[in-house]
Amino acid sequence: MTSFRTPDRARWLAPQEVLFLGVVVLGWAVLVVSLGKDTSWDFRNYHWYIPYAFLNHRMGFDIAVAHQATYYNPTLDIPFYLLANHVPSWIALGVMGAVQGSNIIPLYLIARAALRESEDKWLLAPMLAAFCMLGGLTLGLAGTTYYDNVLSVLTLSSLAIVVTQRERLATGTWRENITVALIGGFVVGCAVGLKLPQAPFALGFAAALAAVRGDWKHRVVRVLAGGVGGLVGLVLFSGYWWLVMYHVTGNPLFPYFNQYFDSPLALAASYRDLRFLPTTWPHRLLYPLLFTFDWRVADDLGYSDIRVGLAYVLLLATIPIALFVKRKREPLVDPSAAAPIFAFAAVAYVAWISVFAIYRYILALEMLAPILIVCAVGLWPLSRRVQLTVLGVLGVITLACIRPGWLERGPVTDPYVQVKLPPIPDPDHTLVVMAGEAPMGYLVPSLPHQIPILRIDGWMITPQDGSRLTASTKKRVLAFKGDIYLIAEEYEIGRATEALEDYGLAMRYLDCREITANLGGPYKFCPVERLTDKKP
Fold first, then answer.
1. Is the pTM of this model over 0.85?
2. Given this model, what pLDDT does residue 322 score?
3. Of 16, 176, 281, 428, which sits 20 to 30 A from 161 (CA to CA)?
């Protein structure tokens, strides 16, 4: 059997290990290209629009095109937007797949560090890491722009830093402690700065630092240093956008938490998705089991996988064993590695269920779950043969229960987004309004750039909501003197008609044309006239 053994396993990867990781990353890239383009609701709503809007200075020129997401930090979306606009689609998808496949690197480092030295280890570690990549939603999100499986590279890397450097954190100098904690904190802080729902993993990282052995002074210094590093990463990727949002709206997180920031543009509401938050203690305690048996409990994206629920049950069972049962002399896993892994997962999970409870936001825990399961069973006072047998049975059962939630994809054609528009006679004197809840932001970059796009009705803004944003939108529409067109999906024409009436407008339905696109639609493109201009 080929050995993955390396002279210094904490620092260097053997050539065989590098080859294994490279094959997985390349394989993930091939998988993503073969699946095709992301046509998800979120991509059509804002992942293509907000980088375009940022790069073309459309803040305030357009209004609420992508609902609340119009005002999201666009930094995370810019690289793929630029890539997909300048290279063939299959290359853009392949690069995205390679980045998402890079989760295998921190997962392998964590698995390798957690397993004790043995002849079996150099086969078990790559098998375990590969198993981590086969989660139901992990597979389903391959090649999509939700980016939870991109940011997981950073959050898992922060944990890998703690686990692989635990001896240095435990016995090293103050300088080594601070340096390791700063680097790990910076990595996870970057993830939070790019997407705030990653914040629970920052708390998990702090818990992992504290779980590494050492006196209380070392632990406090580690956590503080990690916090400083995290703050630097957070500000690096979010600081500028918060300042922009505060200047433009009065709320750095606009429109979220506006009951506290009180931006005059929006209502005094949170604007958050609270549908999945458990409201009772029995519901909270059973939540991992509930979403294991029915994904709709915790997400809008379908999948089937029992690994998170199984890890939850096994970790709860392992607590009394760890506290009261005498440990085997040579457990399958290293307890000094298991402790920060457990702490990271537990604290991140508690923070997540308290604030979000949306399964997609803990995709990193879905990936980490097999390692959690191995660490739990590996600490039980059983023989090595029995431990491996139990893990083998659990692995087979888990594999049998995996049903990836493959999202609908589009063919890999060029250009990446293709939109066919009806003729627009005078784009320099044209205004376009959108109505309804359908995601249509991805159409905007294909429209003439001089045309402002105002959503007059949707998730965030409605004609009668009483917000200043709606009032300013009505004022702009009333003052506009050129041609006005409506874009709406066919099934929302009725709602669009009512929204137009509230703005003193009416569509000329018989003159409607169609906008066709490669990722959705078709959409109605209708000329609009003012009700006061209609002849009796």
1. yes
2. 76
3. 16
The tokens for 155 are: 């959050």
pLDDT mean over 241-260: 96
Distance (Å, rounded) from C-alpha 41 to C-alpha 38? 9
Structure tokens at 447: 């429209």
Longest dimension (CA), the chain: 93
Q: Do 461 and 473 form a contact (C-beta atoms < 8 A)?
A: yes
Percent of the chain with pLDDT over 70: 96
Q: What average pLDDT is seen over the chain? A: 94
What pLDDT shows up at residue 113? 95
Residues found in the chain: 536
Average pLDDT, stretch 494-516? 96
Closest alpha carbon to 484 in 536, 420, 535, 533: 533
The pLDDT assigned to 536 comes to 37
- Cβ–Cβ under 8 Å, residues 484 and 423: no
* Terminal-to-terminal C-alpha distance of the chain: 88
In contact, 298 and 358? CB cutoff 8 Å: yes
Answer yes or no: is pLDDT of 200 > 60. yes
- Kindly report the number of other CB atoms within 10 A of residue 44's CB atom: 23
The pair of three-digit structure tokens given for residue 376, joined into one six-digit string: 């739990």
For residue 37, the surrounding DSSP H or E stretch is strand 37-38
Number of CB atoms found within 10 A of residue 187's CB: 24
pLDDT at 3 over 60: no
In 417-530, at which residue ranges do the beta strands (DSSP E only) sit? 419-420, 430-434, 453-455, 483-489, 505-507, 513-517, 520-530
User: Are the beta carbons of 528 and 504 closer than 8 angstroms?
Assistant: no
Q: Quickly list DSSP for 287-336.
A: HHHHHHH-GGGT-SS--B--HHHHHHHHHHHHHHHHHHSPPPSS-SB-HH
Closest CA to 259 of 244, 277, 274: 274
Q: How far is CA 446 from CA 113, 158, 424, in A?
A: 49, 39, 12
Indicate the residue type of 301. L
- Residues facing residue 529 across a β-bridge: 506
- Of 29, 21, 52, nearest to 417 (Cα)? 52
- Interval 331-352: pLDDT, tens: 899 999 999 999 999 999 999 9
Element (H or E) spanning 245, and its range? helix 216-249
Q: Rounded CA gap, 309 and 286, in Å?
A: 9
Q: Which of 474, 472, 466, 535 is nearest to 501 (CA)?
A: 474
How remote is the C-alpha of 287 from its chain's centroid?
A: 20
Structure tokens at 151: 């940011």
